[in-house]
């Protein structure tokens, strides 16, 4: 959408008029946590935006803890609703260097709200989040002042909650340190891009003290004030469910008096509620809209970002692929030994190959060239041929890629699409533009060698694994809720077992199950304890419970990955993206599936044993698929 505007009738005049008329004044939430703030934010992005839309607010920000994982989902969902998306994050700033990881001080970083004004700001957020996760992680993903100075362009900074550097010093009665910090951020970002962040937890002594200190600083340093809600859930009646979620995070029960809890209302307020809490700070209310007007980020989706394959000097990717295809065709269809195919060029190969083979090759090459996927085939062929040359057992090919003669002659697959009458269009269709997807199967005990080869060939900063998020499904939500409520295990287990199992991997929402499943419905309607358990669990259901690593997905980018996506440390070591696989594809980055299959390891071991015991070397690809003895 276009700019978010309010009428200009002088300082905060329109806001006052609307407040006096009991209309909701213009207000933009600039500090919001979604469930990508793992086990801290309760709200899922679509539900959050539905509520923002219901409140009539025209823009909103996402500011999860140290991560941008939800940014693209948020961006797309905002666009669907004609809400202006503001991409940001709540950063953690190390008191010393982001690489210092030894003292108690290093474990308690300051909070800082960062918002992208434009593409430069978005790219700098990606850099900051990546460095925080890969280099600065110590209890939290941390940055420092030096990094902020380097990557501040295109970013608006707010002082954060009371845990920010300014707020922390105000609470500690160290006003001079608070002023020094505010002055440094003002000098770094510029007064127009740095705001002192008040929050509406009125009556809570620490917040009242910080708000008062920020008002004083605003006058002394000529800085703007802004109001944010630090929302962790959408509606105020979700406070208890959020409390349960925090207990899941900390492993405590709701009865534990010493557990971590947040008593403040961290819901998404209406503009009228904010104006009511800040009757003398209406300019700060108006500044939320001003900041929203300053943020104009457009993220281009649907690009094709295939890495460049290094080809022999003087050749293009297209020319080199044609050369490999016709040489491979002489091996597959011309009965030429593999070691002799380099003697053939396209002209000499065409003279010897059958017409149906030539027609199929030219058709597929034309489609591949038109769609710009020459480099993709070169990359996949190189990965698989290298693996086979290293003695790594690879799969024969599966899925729609088996319908490609180009895949067959370049040794990507071992299935002849002409012999078996397989369709190429199921793999690549010129009338339906989609990224190619060839699953590469390797013996599971050597998969990591192939990833290491790809990393070495394309550069460590160009290759990463892909993050996944584990969702709290119905049964897990019930079990987690029951544990937090300190209910007897047997009681919770009985309810959990009544919940219908997923159908073809798709979980059935609790809301549907309590209507459709007669046993669960009876228990829900007839037992108040069960009803309370399920009612709470339904609010937790669907939130992200943990992060993991995609079992097969690896992304390879044409430029360093942090030019496109934020990165983090993978669950089992190495580097992974902060965006899930579908988002990578939407951004145009190429996802390669490196699958490690135990069956291939078993086959490899069987071949090794046969060779040792019987002295025979068997080529799996040469075993006939219609061998009678096999089927007896």
Layout: helices, strands, pairs:
Elements: H1 13-20, H2 45-54, E1 59-65, H3 71-80, E2 84-93, E3 110-116, H4 119-134, E4 142-143, H5 145-150, E5 155-158, H6 165-171, H7 175-189, E6 194-198, H8 205-221, E7 224-227, H9 239-250, H10 271-277, H11 282-294, H12 317-333, H13 346-350, H14 355-371, H15 374-389, H16 405-409, E8 439-443, H17 447-458, E9 463-471, H18 474-484, H19 489-498, H20 510-516, H21 518-526, H22 528-540, E10 544-556, E11 567-569, E12 575-577, H23 581-586, E13 590-597, H24 598-614, H25 628-631
Parallel strand pairs: 1-2, 2-4, 5-6, 6-7, 8-13
Antiparallel strand pairs: 2-3, 3-5, 9-10, 10-13, 11-12
Helix pairs in contact: 6-7, 6-8, 9-22, 12-14, 12-15, 18-19, 18-22, 20-21, 21-22
Give structural attributes.
seven-stranded mixed β-sheet, disordered N terminus, 25 helices, 43% helix, alpha/beta, 632 residues, single chain, four-stranded mixed β-sheet
Structure in a nutshell:
With 632 residues, this protein is α/β, with parallel strands linked by helices. It is built from 25 helices and 13 strands.
Give the biggest sheet. 7 strands, mixed
Q: Would you count the extended β strands for me?
A: 13
Structural class: alpha/beta
**What would the average pLDDT be, to the nearest integer?**
93
Describe the protein.
The protein has 632 residues and is α/β, with parallel strands linked by helices. It is 43% helix and 13% strand. The chain has 25 helices and 13 strands. The chain has helices spanning 13-20, 45-54, 71-80, 119-134, 145-150, 165-171, 175-189, 205-221, 239-250, 271-277, 282-294, 317-333, 346-350, 355-371, 374-389, 405-409, 447-458, 474-484, 489-498, 510-516, 518-526, 528-540, 581-586, 598-614, 628-631; strands at residues 59-65, 84-93, 110-116, 142-143, 155-158, 194-198, 224-227, 439-443, 463-471, 544-556, 567-569, 575-577, 590-597. Strands 1, 2, 3, 4, 5, 6 and 7 form a 7-stranded mixed beta sheet that branches. A hairpin with a 5-residue loop joins strand 11 (567-569) and strand 12 (575-577). Helix 9 (239-250) packs across helix 22 (528-540). 44% of the residues are buried. Mean pLDDT is 93; it is low at 1-23.
């Amino acid at each position: 959408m276009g700019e978010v505007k309010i009428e200009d009738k002088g300082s905060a005049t329109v806001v006052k008029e609307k407040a006096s008329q009991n209309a909701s004044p213009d207000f933009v939430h600039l500090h919001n946590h979604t469930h990508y703030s793992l086990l801290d934010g309760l709200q899922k992005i679509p539900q959050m935006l539905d509520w923002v839309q219901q409140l009539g607010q025209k823009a909103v920000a996402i500011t999860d803890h140290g991560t941008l994982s939800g940014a693209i989902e948020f961006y797309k969902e905002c666009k669907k609703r004609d809400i202006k998306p503001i991409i940001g994050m709540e950063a953690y700033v190390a008191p010393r260097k982001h690489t210092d990881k030894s003292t108690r001080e290093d474990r308690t970083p300051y909070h800082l709200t960062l918002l992208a004004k434009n593409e430069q700001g978005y790219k700098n957020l990606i850099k900051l989040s990546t460095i925080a996760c890969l280099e600065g992680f110590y209890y939290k993903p941390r940055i420092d002042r030096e990094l902020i100075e380097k990557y501040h362009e295109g970013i608006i900074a707010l002082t954060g909650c009371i845990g920010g550097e300014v707020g922390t010093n105000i609470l500690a009665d160290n006003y001079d340190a608070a002023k020094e910090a505010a002055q440094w951020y003002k000098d770094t970002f510029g007064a127009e891009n740095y705001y002192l962040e008040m929050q509406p937890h009125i009556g809570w002594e620490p917040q009242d003290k910080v708000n008062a200190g920020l008002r004083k600083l605003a006058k002394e340093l000529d800085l703007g004030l802004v109001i944010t809600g630090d929302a962790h859930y959408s509606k105020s009646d979700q406070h208890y469910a959020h409390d349960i979620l925090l207990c899941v995070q900390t492993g405590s029960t709701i009865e534990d008096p010493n557990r971590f809890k947040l008593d403040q209302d961290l819901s998404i307020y209406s503009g009228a509620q904010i104006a009511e809490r800040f009757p003398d700070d209406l300019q700060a209310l108006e500044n939320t809209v001003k900041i929203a007007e300053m943020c104009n980020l457009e993220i281009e989706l649907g690009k094709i970002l295939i890495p460049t394959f290094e080809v022999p000097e003087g050749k293009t990717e297209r020319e080199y692929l044609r050369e490999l295809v016709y040489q491979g065709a002489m091996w597959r269809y011309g009965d030429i030994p593999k070691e002799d195919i380099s003697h053939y060029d396209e002209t000499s190969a065409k003279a010897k190959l059958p017409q149906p083979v030539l027609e199929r090759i030219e058709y597929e090459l034309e489609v591949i060239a038109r769609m710009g996927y020459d480099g993709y085939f070169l990359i996949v062929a190189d990965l698989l041929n290298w693996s086979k040359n290293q003695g790594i057992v690879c799969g024969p090919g599966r899925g729609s890629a088996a319908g490609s003669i180009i895949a067959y002659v370049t040794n990507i697959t071992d299935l002849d699409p002409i012999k078996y009458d397989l369709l190429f269009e199921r793999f690549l269709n010129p009338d339906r533009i989609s990224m190619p997807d060839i699953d590469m199967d390797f013996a599971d005990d050597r998969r990591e060698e192939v990833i290491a080869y790809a990393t070495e060939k394309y550069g460590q900063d160009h290759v990463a694994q892909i993050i996944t998020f584990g969702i709290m499904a119905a049964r897990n939500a019930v079990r987690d809720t029951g544990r937090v409520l300190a209910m007897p295990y047997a009681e919770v287990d009985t309810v959990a077992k009544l919940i219908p199992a997923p159908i073809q991997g798709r979980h059935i929402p609790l809301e549907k199950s309590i209507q459709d499943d007669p046993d669960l419905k009876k228990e829900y309607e007839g037992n108040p304890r069960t009803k309370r358990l399920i009612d709470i669990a339904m609010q937790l259901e669907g939130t992200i419970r943990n992060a993991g690593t995609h079992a097969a997905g690896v992304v390879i980018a044409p430029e360093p990955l942090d030019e496109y996506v934020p990165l983090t440390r993978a669950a089992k070591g190495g580097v992974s993206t902060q965006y899930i696989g579908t988002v990578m594809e939407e951004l145009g980055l190429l996802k390669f599936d490196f699958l490690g299959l135990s069956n291939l390891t078993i086959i490899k071991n069987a071949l090794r044993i046969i060779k040792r015991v019987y002295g025979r070397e068997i080529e799996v690809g040469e075993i006939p698929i219609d061998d009678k003895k096999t089927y007896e």
